[in-house]
Design brief:
heterodimer, A: about 270 residues, B: mainly alpha, MetI-like fold, two-stranded antiparallel ribbon, 2 strands, transport (chain B), Putative spermidine/putrescine transport system permease protein (chain B), MetI-like (chain B), membrane (chain B), MetI-like_sf (chain B)
């Protein structure tokens, strides 16, 4: 198709303009972390590292970070196990109700966050009679993380085909041996990508978490939410936000090394 | 691995006749190999049990809870069936207003995101050079990994009184529904760009050239060749943006001023107001909206792109 030069230029301008706009608010937060004014007025009149010092000393933020890492690690482990099993079943077999199973797994992320949140909260509290705690957060997070692992592994299995596995079986390897020596090594980067997505999803989740977190268990997002509205804590929240922005570039860097695997986000 | 019989040992030489060859795999493994349903059952049971016992049961319980009520004196849950909660939702003006507001915000966010995503995805997939394309994909993916709350917080800072938006001379709409739409559109934009981009990448260039050779101008090619092929991708991205906005109540807390969305009502009733049955009933509204939407869209095959 022949696009006129002006059309190409306009498209390029729009694309670069919007992409630049996407980064502006994040850069504002970075700059704001050294804003001497506690009420965050602009422009900055000077530079201070007072907030960085106070953030480093913040026990609340550090505890919340530890909780978040624990929750994300546990939820990711469960999601990796269940998601892989599910992907193998969905990709290698055909059975009655396959489409329903597919839909069921997408449901926790396809339905609005409040629905998943209130459903699980209600299920834990009124049906099971369990008190909300760090475990209820982990179970909730694992439930919506399964789909990210399953999608990544399914995509990989589709691309792998079955010929190597059949060759392995023909040569006499048992089902489990074939899985361990043939299937699993080929899935490794898909598992890494899916696990990374699940970890990030859990680490960042706030809506379902507010419904399923007990009083004692504060994840980092909940800590941020609770402290954002306190005038003397807002600058510390700002610093934590900058740290999280820096953290968020790690998976991007990793994803680049894994290249094509992470293209299928979610 | 070869433990069952000595005949299977490689050192005894290869037997070409398969009938003479003893099985190499362990008995359990042979059983697994033969019984497809057993393999499938072992694979499916754990994830399916998790999803059914935790999620489906929870959703069913939510429906049942919405038919209960709360005793106003003891504030205990009264487990007799009643449609009172739904009557409240229909009759009370507040719930109607909030529902309309929530759907309106979600629609606005979806339309804005699709409108912005289409030209960007087209530029990335069909105009940019392969090297530039890779860089642009990274540029779109990177903010996806940045924390959701950080992004909302960023807009709270940008739009604050005396903040960067006012300072830059563009002016700030202040905290309110406009701010909610801006922030949500900002947050979910990459989720819309990616499926549209993926759909565009699958459209072969030769198709566009053929249309051009047959005399269609650029506008016609876009309208009658490209756009129909993009419908599943647009729907997939649109569902994401719509559903994510509908279920969000954090953004409206942070940049929405005094406005409320459905999620706020659910959260307040589940927590402070201690009326779980009413909260469950309110949560039925987004479920119904999404189910209707998904059922309508399922026919187009867009769900495979999620």
């Amino acid at each position: 198709m022949n696009l006129s030069r002006t059309a190409r230029r306009m498209l390029a301008g729009l694309t670069f303009g919007v992409l630049a706009l996407i980064y502006v608010p994040l850069l504002v937060v970075v700059a704001n972390s050294v804003n001497p004014s506690q009420s965050m007025t602009w422009p900055l009149d000077g530079v201070t590292f007072e907030w960085w010092r106070r953030a480093a000393d913040s026990v609340g933020a550090r505890d919340a970070l530890v909780t978040s890492l624990q929750v994300a690690a546990a939820a990711t482990a469960i999601a990796l196990l269940l998601g892989t099993l599910l992907a193998l079943a969905l990709q290698r077999y055909s059975f009655f109700g396959k489409h329903s199973v597919n839909l069921l797994v997408i449901l926790p992320i396809a339905l609005p966050g409040v629905v998943t949140g209130i459903a699980l909260s209600n299920g834990f509290r009124t049906i099971l009679g369990v008190d909300l705690s760090i475990w209820t957060i982990i179970i909730a997070h694992a439930t919506f993380c399964i789909v990210t692992v399953s999608n990544n592994v399914q995509a990989r299995l589709r691309r792998m085909g079955t010929s190597l596995e059949e060759a392995s079986a023909d040569l006499g390897a048992g089902v489990l041996t074939t899985f361990r020596l043939v299937t699993l090594p080929q899935m490794r980067s898909a598992l890494l990508a899916g696990g990374m997505l699940a970890f990030a999803l859990s680490f960042d989740e706030i809506i379902v978490t507010t419904f399923t977190a007990g009083n004692g268990a504060n994840t980092l997002p909940i800590w941020i939410l609770n402290n954002m509205f306190r005038p003397n804590q807002a600058p510390v929240v700002n610093v934590v936000a900058v740290v999280l922005i820096i953290f968020s570039t790690i998976p991007v860097w990793l994803a680049q090394r894994l290249s094509s695997d992470v293209e299928a986000v979610r | 691995m070869a433990t069952s019989t000595p005949a299977a040992d490689g050192r005894t030489g290869r037997t070409t006749d398969p009938a003479l060859r003893a099985p190499v795999a362990r008995p359990g493994s042979r059983l697994l190999h033969r019984l497809v349903w057993l393999r499938l059952g072992l694979l499916l049971s754990a994830p399916l049990a998790w999803m059914l016992l935790i999620y489906v049961v929870a959703l069913a319980a939510l429906l049942i809870t919405s038919l209960w009520s709360v005793d106003s004196l003891s504030s205990e849950i009264d487990r007799t069936w009643t449609l009172d909660n739904f009557r409240t939702l229909v009759e009370n003006q507040v719930y109607r207003d909030v529902t309309v507001r929530t759907i309106g915000v979600a629609l606005a966010v979806t339309v804005i995101d699709v409108a912005i995503a289409l030209p960007i995805a087209f530029y990335m997939a069909k105009v940019a050079s392969p090297r530039l394309r890779r860089m642009l994909v990274v540029a779109v993916l990177t903010p996806l990994w940045a924390s959701y709350l950080v992004k909302v917080f960023a807009w709270r800072v940008v739009l604050s009184e005396g903040g960067p938006a006012e300072w830059s001379g563009l002016g700030s709409p202040g905290y309110g529904l406009t701010a909610v739409v801006i922030t949500q559109a900002y947050i979910w934009l990459p989720y819309v760009i990616l499926p549209v981009f993926a759909a565009l990448e699958r459209v072969p260039d030769s198709l566009l050239e053929a249309a051009g050779d047959l005399g269609a101008n650029s506008g016609m090619v876009l309208r009658s060749v490209v756009l129909p092929l993009l419908v599943p991708g647009i729907l997939a991205g649109g569902i994401f943006a719509f559903s994510l906005t509908m279920g969000d109540y954090i953004t409206v807390n942070i940049v929405g001023g005094a406005n409320q969305m459905l999620g706020n009502l659910v959260f307040v009733n589940a927590g402070a107001a201690n009326n779980l049955p009413l909260a469950a009933a309110i949560a039925m509204i987004p479920i119904v909206v999404m189910v209707v939407l998904l059922a309508a869209i399922r026919r187009t095959g867009a769900l495979e792109n999620l």
